[in-house]
Amino acid sequence: MSTQTAASTPEVQKTHLTIALAGNPNAGKSTLFNLLTGLNQKVGNYPGVTVERRSGRTTLNNHTTAEIIDLPGTYSVYPRSADEQVVVDVLLNRNSPHYPDVVVVVADLNNLERSLLLFTQVQDLGLPSVLVLNMADLAQKRGLHIDTRKLSQALGNAPIVTMNARNGEGLAELKACLTENIKPGTTPFYEVYKLAPEAIAEVKYQFRRHNYYEAYQLLHHGEHLTFLTPAEKEQLARLRSQGNIDTAALQMEETKARYAHIQHLLDTVLTLPEESSQASFSEKIDRIVTHRIFGYFIFLGILFMVFQAIFAWATVPMDYIDLAFSQLSEWIKDTLPGGLLTDLLAEGVLPGIGGVVIFVPQIAILFVFIALLEETGYMARVVFLMDKIMRKAGLNGRSVVPLISGMACAVPAIMAARSIDHWKDRLITIFVTPFMSCSARLPVYTILIALVVPDRTMLGFINLQGLTLMGMYLLGFAAAMGSALLMKYVIRARKSGFLIMELPTYRWPRWGNVLITSYEKSKSFVVEAGKIILAVSIVLWVLASYGPGDRMAQAEQQLRTEATIGSQDLENQVAAARLQHSYAGVLGQGLEPAIKPLGYDWKIGIALITSFAAREVFVGTMATLYSVGEDFEDDSTIKSRMRSEVNPETGGPRYTLAVAFSLLVFYAFAMQCMSTVAVVYRETKGWKWPILQMAYMTALAYVSAFLVYQTLS
Amino acid sequence: MKTLDQLKPGDKAMISNLKPSDLTTKLLEMGLLPGRTVRFNFKAPLGDPISVQIAGYSLSLRLSEAHLIELA
According to the 3-state scheme, what is the secondary structure of A207-232? Predict the structure, then answer.
């Protein structure tokens, strides 16, 4: 509350407030947040938890600025997901510098009763609270009337602002209201003291809390609160057991009592429209969208459109980004004095950054579509349609979006799993999403399939190569489903999954919201994933550019002295020889015994190592290894090189059907994408899951590739 | 005892009680209070989950969750 004291002398000092936005999901909280902060947003993480912390700055008037914290949507102060837990952690942590001076509770005026449950709880915590009645235009259209003066009186004179966050109506009033000195409520809406007088009084005294409800909340949440010390948690647990406090029963009683009180109150201040017998607009859409046949067709149709758009619209900017980065590398090589730093920049750092930035068009477009589907309310229907199918595999209806997005790129897909409120379901989704065949696997699949599968048509229209490619996508999907099923039995969860979800009314999307969301998510991808990708790229560059002792130089020298061939071919051979004697080459040769049972030699071993950065590097590495030179865009050259590569042990071709299929299966299953590792680390807030995931996927890839090779050869 | 999962599309009924479970308070919070009228909207194409109208909005829940809600 330190900043509140500054408000007492506003004429001399600038005031800075911390304002938290709370509210039910779909109440328009994010719209209000975007309205207040615009692009002045910052995405971080709450300490110790996986949930992202969105905050932003705004100016309230000439001498008041505010940090706005967008709390995750919640229905009460009793959390069920990691998202909701954050709300309680923020609202109860008095000693935190981020403890809010004011809480703005955003309510959908059309759904006031449910919002008031949360509002009265927040207010009872002793926090100065403002009630925003959002979507007033819609309510008015429906013929709903509210007596805000009377409602405010009944809520301890809490300030109430009527708004339409979608078009900004009421923003000035809200800002003006926030600069006034808002006082916390004095009489609690719900009297909690009588439930357990001794324990509550004890906690209030011991933890220096301002009122009984706050003390009761500490007692209730106890060990789940992240900011308490182990000793404090123990103390709360002891008080709870001494007082024989059945938290679940008390919570139920409280919810019922609050609702009874709220219902009574709303009877006097709210005039509801006559319930019309006609189906509403939303109901009419739902009849079509959740139709037993059309429902799935519409969903598949939308999916198809999204993918068409991603591949159609992203290709051009991706090509330009590719071109720009390679030209920049070349320019650096030409302009800067030759040396270590130039090489590192041109061959390590820039391609590393380029490798991140190239995915931005796909990610941004994907996020635009996801935000659109969420804004309109259609996403909730997709969850509704798919829940039963997904549940059979140990997933949740909400897993559909990440799995589909995974076919473009696993990184944004894993970020999309945030919408899953149940932690176990979300974790399984994150765990299996990388099995979906992403666009980076496509170049690897294409070249290997072209090597061994004849370009023939079956039954006149089915292309064998196309069929194999589709088979690879199905294989990835099957692996995702199978692994989810396995995880379902392995992971134990304290709470079971559920799907009690509001189906919001359909709304026209707000482009501002859609674009800001897409921009923020793309930005955090570039920054967060970029840091790790950059680091690993540099390591890989060092491994591929340096070798133990002077073996690299010797090999190069030998080639140059024996040279009888043209200069271009010589340079290619030199590059290949250098790679062979580099640390990466040595590693590849060291790896050979392990990968021999899969049918691979040390050259493929190098490709496997470099592919850890990103799968598509396979083609580039092969190109360098078989000394085709830099121009590996030309697939036919590398294909013919690979085809003519001889296995010295058999005398036959290196890439037999068995080897190619073994490689295909390996690339389908193995976790060879540091961007994904980075994002799983970020989303699960630790190394446990990314490491387990990598071990599991690599083991599965190894065993499957082994079986494929041994069966086919 | 009739429960919410047994209603047909369009049916209305009054909630009499919630069977005690881990989800009781969640259901209460979402407005499924004893004494309230609830209307069955529609089922998902595969029969589960379902959509109901309660307290002026539409809520979806699984059959197993609807089974916890007893009707008068």
Answer: CCCCCHHHHHHHHHHHHHCCCCCHHH
CA distance A542 to A111: 60
Cα dihedral sign, A502-A505-A506-A507: negative
How does pLDDT run across A233-264, given as a tens digit for each residue?
999 999 888 888 888 888 999 999 999 999 99
| Model pTM score | 0.79
Query: What pLDDT is recorded for position A124?
Result: 94
Q: Which of A314, A429, A365, A359 is nearest to A674 (CA)?
A: A359
DSSP A28: S
Cβ–Cβ below 8 Å for B29 and A78: yes
Whether the CB of B69 is below 8 Å from some CB of chain A: the reply is: no
DSSP β-ladder status, A15-23 and A102-108? parallel
Determine the Cα–Cα distance for residues A92 and A424; give it in Å rounded to an integer.
Answer: 26
Task: Tell me which residue in B28, B47, B56 faces A252 most closely, judged by beta carbons.
Answer: B28
Question: A638-665: b or e for each residue (b if 16 or more CB lie within 10 Å)?
Answer: bbeebeeeeeeeeeebbbbebbbbbbbb
Cα–Cα distance, A242 to A224 (Å, whole number): 19
Interface pTM (ipTM) of the complex? 0.95
Structure-token pair, residue A580: 């062979």
CB-nearest to A499 from B28, B31, B62 is B62
Could you tell me if A184 and A163 are in contact, meaning their C-beta atoms sit under 8 angstroms apart?
no
pLDDT in tens, A481-490: 999 999 888 8
